[in-house]
Amino acid sequence: MKDQKKKKSSYISSGESRKITRFNRRVTKKFEKRREDAAKDPALYTTRMKDPNNVVEFDNVRTYFFTDVGVVKAVDGVNFEIPKKSTVGVVGESGCGKSVTSLSLMQLLQRPQGQTVSGEIRFVKDDGSAYNIVNTPNSIMESIRGNDMSMIFQEPMTALNPIFRVGDQIDEVIILHNPDMPKEDVKKRTLEMLDLVGIANKEGVYKMYPHELSGGMRQRICIAIALACSPKIIIADEPTTALDVTIQAQILDLLKNLKDKLNSSIMLITHDLGVVADMADYVVVMYAGRIVEKGTAREIFHNPSHPYTIGLMASKPVVGQKVEKLYNIPGSVPNPVKMPNYCYFRDRCEMRCDKCDGQYPPEIKIGDTHIVSCYRFIDKGEVLDYPKTVEVEDLYNE
Ligand SMILES: Nc1ncnc2c1ncn2[C@@H]1O[C@H](COP(=O)(O)OP(=O)(O)OP(=O)(O)O)[C@@H](O)[C@H]1O
Ligand code: SF4
Ligand SMILES: [Mg+2]
User: Fold this and answer.
1) What DSSP assignment string belongs to 129-190?
2) Is the minimum distance from the CB of 345 to ligand 2 under 6 angstroms?
3) Distance from the CA of 95 to the center of ligand 3, in angstroms?
4) What's the rounded mean pLDDT across residues 189-201?
5) Minimum-distance ligand to the CA of 104?
């Protein structure tokens, strides 16, 4: 009986399903049209950085997916900056919106279902002004991606083309962005890149196909491709998850060394706190599409404040510390189509208090750069904004 009730609550009738489809079509059409119109007018996709020392600024970004079962608010009001020449680690459990945040920045969302419905993503330009990526036309995005922004993917084999030699694949990227460069110089630059990513037999590897290389070598090639054009930002989405542990350590060392040699910033997405502790200058902790805590790596690791961050830390094994059983955070993330009005972590939180039954907690500044969204700190810091979501019904009128 109980089961039947449960089934009923998540069951969508054919009438409801048609209604959702009609709504999705109308809303996505509206957002596509808005993008098309904005793309025609440079004033609508040109803006200014709030702080010229940043490369990227996410300002109240909301990216929603219009699916057959309703609207998934994958990213709902995200604010953070990526300063020049720094590494920002984005952490959180599977499905919390890390990749969608980076895809919104690169404008590689699966459209028309995926739409950034509000907010600004500012990306610095050479002349000091900035693009608002949300409205930037595809033709400009194509030149930004690869030139100013590049990506290191999780699975190096699928990121490389199996039928071309690796040297040719790096050459291609260099030629694409430097069409007038003589052929010999292109090869010279490719060999320099292979050298930079620690490939010893660079002349030999230049002529190899991806399947002839190990996973770690392939990831080095992907990193060489990402660096080939000296981008302003490198987005590394779980760059070591598909590799075995010793190779993981080598790739992380490589990224760490490169970080000091390059002028690029790195947005490092991972659910491995160890990786972040090793590499990041700043850390952003996401939970269910929102940022629950952010600060410098020192603030987050020495003074984790949000119960979710504390739980993540407690579930991380520590070398030299013997524990019977690693901590695991109880419960699971709320249904992304029907997020509650109260703190999204409340139903899993072992520190909740009476205030937690109220609206979603505000951002509270508890240190110069340390911000946390949790009622435990309501009297212990400067209360900033209460986040608001956009109601699904209002999306058409927005
Ligand atoms: N194309 C899509 N269509 C519908 N929903 C999507 C799509 N892509 C992502 N989502 C939803 O958006 C939410 C955030 O997904 P995202 O891929 O950003 O998670 P993540 O934090 O990167 O997780 P992981 O650590 O597993 O990579 C999830 O609820 C996911 O189901
Ligand atoms: S606001 Fe309350 S329920 Fe939410 S994380 Fe903080 S203590 Fe837990
Ligand atoms: Mg992901």
Assistant:
1) EEEEGGG--HHHHHHHHHHTEEEE-S-HHHHS-TTS-HHHHHHHHHHHH-TTS-HHHHHHHH
2) yes
3) 7
4) 90
5) 1
Indicate whether 397 pLDDT > 90: no
In tens, the pLDDT along 149-180 reads 998 887 777 888 999 999 999 999 889 888 89
Q: Strand, helix or coil at 395?
A: helix
Q: How far is CA 75 from the centre of its chain?
A: 10
322 C-alpha to ligand 1 centroid (Å) = 35
Q: What is the DSSP string of 126-139?
A: TTSEEEEGGG--HH
Q: Is the pLDDT of residue 1 over 50?
A: no
Note the pLDDT tens digit of each residue in 211-232. Answer: 999 888 898 899 999 888 889 9
Please tell me the distance from the alpha carbon of residue 267 to that of residue 236, in angstroms, as a whole number: 6
**Residues with Cβ within 8 Å of residue 177, at least 6 apart in sequence:** 146, 147, 228, 229
The residues, any chain, with a CB within 8 Å of residue 322's CB and separated by 6 or more, are none
Q: Which atom of ligand 2 is nearest to the CA of 344?
A: 4
376 pLDDT exceeds 90?
Answer: yes
Q: How far does residue 269's CA lie from ligand 2's centre (Å)?
A: 24
β-strand pairing of 282-287 with 87-91 = parallel
Nearest listed ligand to the Cα of residue 360: 2
